[in-house]
Amino acid sequence: MAVAVLGLTMGAPFLRAISVTDTTGWNAWYNQQGTLITDPFSDQQTGQPADDFVGTTTTAAFQQKAGFLDSDPTNQYIAFRARFGEYNPSGNGGNFSLGIDLTGEGKVNLVMRLNYKGTTGANTSIDFAKPGTGANDAPSTTSWGSFNTPGGLGTLNSNTYSYTAVTDGINIGPVRNNGNPIYSANAWITFAISYANLESAIRSYAAYYVLNGATYTETAGYFSNYSVNDYSGMSFVAFTSTQSNAINQDLLGTSGNTNSSTTFASLGAGSTFLRPGGSPVPEPAAFFQMAGMLGVGFAGVFFKRRRGVRRDAVQAAL
Ligand SMILES: [Ca+2]
Ligand SMILES: [Ca+2]
Ligand SMILES: [Ca+2]
Fold it and tell me: How many angstroms separate the alpha carbon of residue 161 from the centre of ligand 3?
C-alpha cells in the first residue's frame, strides 16, 4: 500500500502498460527555467524539415513516459518521442540523440543516439557514446567518442520504434520550402529502451569528469553500480545530427545556437531533472517525508543515488 501511495504521489509509473504508439499519457519536457520546451521550425542547419524539432507552448516538442511495454510485460521501458517538421517516410532521418546528465549539474555524462533511418525500425539502432574530456555543458564544449551498439539494440521493431504522422490536426512549421510540396503533417519519432539496457549502457559508457587545473580527468568507475529504476533522476538535451561528434542540425529548445558555448541550462535547452516517466524529481524535503514513511533503508538508497547532485540542479527540479 505504501509503495502504491508513493507511486501516485511521485508520479512513478507502477504497473502502467505503455506502447510506442500511445497518443496520450506523455509527459512533456520543461527546461530548467520552468518553461515548456519549444522549438522553432526551420532552425535546423541543412534544410530537411524531417530533422527539424518543432513544438509550441501548446504543442509539445518532446515527451517521455515509462512503464511495462505492452509487448514485454516483464520489463520496464522508457519511451521518448519528439515532434518533427515533416512526415517523410521515404526520406526521414539523420540521427536523433539525447545527451544525458545523470548527476544534475548540467554536464552530459552519456550520449544516446537513435539512428532513425527507416519507418519500421528494422534498420534502426540505439547506440551510445562516452562523452569527450571537455566541460560537456554546452553545444561547443560537448563532444563524444565512437558509438557502440549494445546487444539487442541493433535492430528495433514496431514494439520499440515508431515513425508516424502527427494526427492532432496541427501542422507546425513551413508548409512550403522553396517551392517544394506542402508538407502533409508533422511527424512523431518514438522509441523505447528498457531500464535494463539503459542501465547496462550507463555502466559501460557513461563518464564523470572532474576538472583538475585546465584538464578534465575521469573518475573511474563512477557509474559502475548505477541502477535505473522508477526513482532514477536524469536531465536531457536533444539534438539532431548527420555527423558524429557535432551538434550540427537542430538543438531542441533554442533557435540555432548549435555552436554556442553558452550552457545548455542557460540556453533553456536542458530539461529539468526527471524520473524515467518524465515527472520532475521532487524537492528533497518532500522526498525525505516520503522516505520517512517507508523507513531509513529507503532514505539510505536516496542518499547514495543522489550523491554529487548540486544545489542548483535540485532547485531546478522544484
Ligand atoms: Ca526546430
Ligand atoms: Ca552530469
Ligand atoms: Ca532548435
Answer: 23
CA 85 to ligand 1 centroid distance, Å = 8
How remote is the CA of residue 316 from the centroid of ligand 2, in Å? 14
Can you say how many angstroms the Cα of residue 110 is from the centroid of all Cα atoms in its chain? 11
**Residue 84 CA: which ligand is closest?**
1
Task: Report the predicted TM-score, pTM, of the whole model to 2 decimal places.
Answer: 0.84
Inter-CA distances, 259 with 94, 114, 137, 144, 168, Å: 19, 21, 12, 15, 33
Q: Ligand 2 center to residue 240 CA distance, Å? A: 20
- Which cell numbers in the block locate residue 106? 548540467
pLDDT digits (tens, 9 = 90+) for 137-194: 999 999 999 999 999 999 999 999 999 999 999 999 866 656 666 677 999 999 999 9
Strands (E), 134-242: 161-165, 187-194, 209-212, 215-218, 235-241
Residue 69, Ramachandran bin (φ over 0: left; ψ between -120 and 50: alpha; else beta): beta
Instruction: For residue range 119-143, list pLDDT tens digits in order.
Output: 899 999 999 999 999 999 999 999 9
